[in-house]
Amino acid sequence: MTDKNVSNVLWYKSPAEDWNDALALGNGRIGAMTFGQPLYERICLNEDSLWSGGPRKRNNRSALPNLERVRELLAEEKIAEAEDIVRDAFCGTPVNQRHYMPLCDLEIIDFVNKECEYKERSLDLRTAVATAEYSAGGCDYRREAFVSEPDQVMVIRITASVKGGVNLRLKLDGHDDYFDDNTPAEDHILFCGTEGGADGISYAAYLKAVPEGGEVRPYGSFLECSGCDALTVIIAAQTSFRCSNPRDRVRFDADTAAAKSCDELLSAHIKDYKSYYDRCNIDLCDNSEGASALPTDERLERVKNGGADNKLTELYFNFGRYLLIAASRERTLPTNLQGIWNKDMWPAWGCKFTININTEMNYWGVEICNLPELHKPLFDHIERMRPNGRETAKEMYGCKGFCCHHNTDIWGDTAPQDLWMPATQWPMGAAWLCLHIWEHYRFTQDKEFLAEKFDTLCEAARFFVDFLTEDSKGRLVTTPSVSPENTYLTGSGTKGSLCQGPSMDSQIIYELFTAVIEASELLGQQEEYAGLLRSLRSKLPAPEIGKYGQIKEWAEDYDEVEPGHRHISQLFALYPADMITLRGTPELAAAARATLERRLAHGGGHTGWSRAWIINHWARLHEGEKVYENIAALLAHSTSRNLFDMHPPFQIDGNYGGSAGIAEALIQSQGKVIDLLAALPAEWSEGSFRGLCARGGFEVSAKWQNCTLTEAEITPRADGLCRLVCPEKTVITCGESTVGYRYNDGCAEFTAEAGKAYRISY
C-alpha cells in the first residue's frame, strides 16, 4: 500500500471516472493522465509540440494605414467607430493561431478478469510515480507509471502476485481518425500521422511491451500479453517539430529504454526528478484534527464544507511545484493553458500561450520556489517570437523593436488572436514576457545570462519608443490598446474596450524600461539608449487613485461595466511588479486594498487563476488572514478532485499562481528587502520552510512559533548587500563569528559573501 504522506501524496479509494479526476504525469514534453481504472485503463497521452499546423504570416497589412485614424477617434472618445475599424483592419489574417492537440490514448484491457476489488490509486509527489492497486481472481495487481526525463519515455510496470497472472491487451488509439496507422506488429505498436497538411506537424508514438514470462503477440488492433508474470510497457513520442523523422526516433527511444531494467529506468527518473523537487519545502502546523489522513478527495470536500486543513495547503503547494517540473523542462515548450495535459481536439481557447496573464502566472513560482532552470522554455520561446514580433511591429504599427499581442502559439506567432475587442488589440504580450528575463536575473544574479538576454530586453523596449504617443495631458501612452478583457463606461454612457493608456500598459512599460536601464548600468552597455528610456519613463502615467479610492484601471477614471471582473490589471504594479509597496507607497497600497475589496464585493475571484492572483495581491499587502481566506476559496470553489485548477474549465495557471501565493505569504523580496512571514495567517501559527528564494540571489530557510520567527538562515548565491526586515536586536552569525550590521528603517543591512550561511537568531 502507498505511504500516504499527507503533504506529498494524492490518493483515492476509487478510480477516476472523469478526466478532471485523473492524475497527471509528465517530463516536460510527454504528458499522461492516468485514471487508475483496474480492468480497463485509459491513459490520455500528450506531446507538447503536437499542434494543429505549421507557421503562418498573419499580420494584417490594413492596420498601419488606419492607425492614425483610430488614434484620432479614441482621442475624440468616438469609441465605437475606432473599434469598428480595429475589428476589421487590425485582426489577424486568418483570425486564429494554431492550437494544441492531444496525441492518443493508451488502452490497457484485462481480457481474463471481469470483476475486481479496488484498493487505491495514488500519485507520490516525492517520486512522480502514479500507482493503482486492485485484486481480481485471487491475484493482487499493482500498476506503476512514470514519465522519465532522462530516458524520454513513459514507463508502466504491471505486476501480479500470481505467476502468469498478467493477461492484458494494449492499444494506441487516436482521436476522430486524425492518424495514419496504429497497427500492432510483434511486440510493438507504431502510431503515427500528420496534423495541418503538407506544412504541418508529423508525429509518432511507439508502444513496446517487455514481458517477464508469457508471450506477446498481435491480436487485431491490440498487442495481447498473456500468461506474463510481469509486464513493462514503454511509450515513446516525438514530432517533426524537433526531429526530422519521428517514426524512426520513437523506435530508437523505446528500444533504448527497453534495453534497461525497469529498476534502472525508475532509479534514473527519481534521481533526476528529486534534484528539483527536494530543493524546497514548507511545513505548516496540522489544524485538521486528524482529517489530513483522509483520501485527497475527502479532504478537499471537507474544506469545501468549511473545514480547516493546512496540510492540504501544503499538498497544493507541492502539487504546483510538481506540475512545473512535469510540464516545463529544458528543451521543451513553455507550459500552455493546461500545462501539457489536454484531451480535446478543439480545446478551450486553443490551449495556447495566453500572455495577458496566464502564461506569466504559470512561471510566477519558478524563482521563489528554487526552480530557475524551469524558466528556460519561456526564454527560448521569447527568442522564437522575436523575428515574428519584428514583422508585426513594422507591418502593423510602423515601429522598430518587436511586440506580440495577447496570445502566441508553438511558432511564436505575434499577430492579434481572436475577434474579441476586450482582449485582442493588446500589444503588450512580449513586453510582459520579457520582464521574466529580468526577474530571473534578480533572483539568480546571473550576469552572464543577463548579458545574453540584454538585446532581447532592449528590442522589446524599442517598440515603445516608437509606439507611445502623447495624450492631451502630455503623458506618453499606448494607443490603441485595452485593459485586458475588461470594458469601461464613459461619463456619457458609452461602453468601450479600446482605449488610450490603460494603466497596466504604463506599468509594464515602466518596469521594462527600468529593467533595461538597470541592466545597462550593470553591464556597462547601451548607456545612451538607457538615457533615452529614462527620459521617456518620466512621461509615463504613474498609478493614480480614482473616485472610489481605487487604483485607476484606465488613464481616465472610467467605471467598469463589470466591477467584479476577473482581471485586476491595474494592480500589476502591486504584483508581480513592485511599483506599489506598503513600505514605499502606503497611499497607493491603501488604494490597491480598496481595488481588491471593490472587485471582491462585486463577485470577483470567481475563476481559479483570478483567485490565485488575489492571493498574491493580499500577500503583498501583508494581509495574512485574507491570504488564508482566499486559499480556502481557491480550494473550495476552483479545485477539482485531482487538485487541478478549474477556471472552469481546467486551466493550470491557478495551480501555479496559487503555489506562488503560498510562498509569497512566507517570503517577500520586493524593493531590495527580504521580509519573512510578511503575510503569515494566524492559522499557520507554527511551521518552517526551507530552500525558498529571494531577489538578490538569496536562498532562505526559517522557523517560527506562535506566529513569531525563531530562527532563519540566508545563503547568498553572489556577493552583495543583504537587507533583512527584523527586530533591532537580532543576532546574525556566520560560522562561529558574529556579523555586524547597520540597522536602518527596520532592516539589518550587511554585506554577504556567496556560498556562506548566515544564521539569524530572533
**How many H/I helical runs?**
17
The level 1 CATH classification of the domain at 9-48 and 101-277 is: Mainly Beta
| CATH architectural grouping of the domain at 9-48 and 101-277 | Distorted Sandwich
Gyration radius (Cα, Å) is 27 Å
Poorly predicted regions: none
Strand content: 15-25%
Which fold does the CATH topology of the domain at 9-48 and 101-277 refer to? Beta-galactosidase, Chain A, domain 5
What portion of residues is helical? 25-40%
User: Describe the biggest sheet?
Assistant: 9 strands, antiparallel
Q: By CATH's scheme, which homologous superfamily of the domain at 9-48 and 101-277 applies?
A: putative glycoside hydrolase family protein from bacillus halodurans
- The computed structural class is alpha+beta
Distance separating the two termini: 43 Å
Shape: globular
Largest sheet strand order:
1-6-7-8-9-16-13-12-11
Q: Got a strand count?
A: 35
* Mean pLDDT, all residues: 97
Question: What are the main properties of this structure?
Answer:
globular; 24% strand; alpha+beta; 9-stranded antiparallel beta sheet; 17 helices; 7-stranded antiparallel beta sheet; Beta-galactosidase, Chain A, domain 5; Immunoglobulin-like; single chain; 35 strands; 762 residues
Structure in words:
Strands 1-6-7-8-9-16-13-12-11 form a 9-stranded antiparallel sheet. A 7-stranded antiparallel sheet has the order 2-3-4-5-10-15-14. Strands 17-27-28-29-35-31-32 form a 7-stranded antiparallel sheet, with helices on one face. Helices cover 31% and strands 24% of the residues. The two termini are 43 Å apart. It is built from 17 helices and 35 strands. The protein is an alpha+beta fold and 762 residues long. Among the domains are: 9-48 and 101-277, Beta-galactosidase, Chain A, domain 5, CATH 2.70.98.50; 286-310, no CATH class; 685-761, Golgi alpha-mannosidase II (Immunoglobulin-like, Sandwich), CATH 2.60.40. Helix 9 (376-397) packs antiparallel against helix 10 (429-444) and helix 10 packs across helix 12. The model has no long low-confidence stretch (mean pLDDT 97).
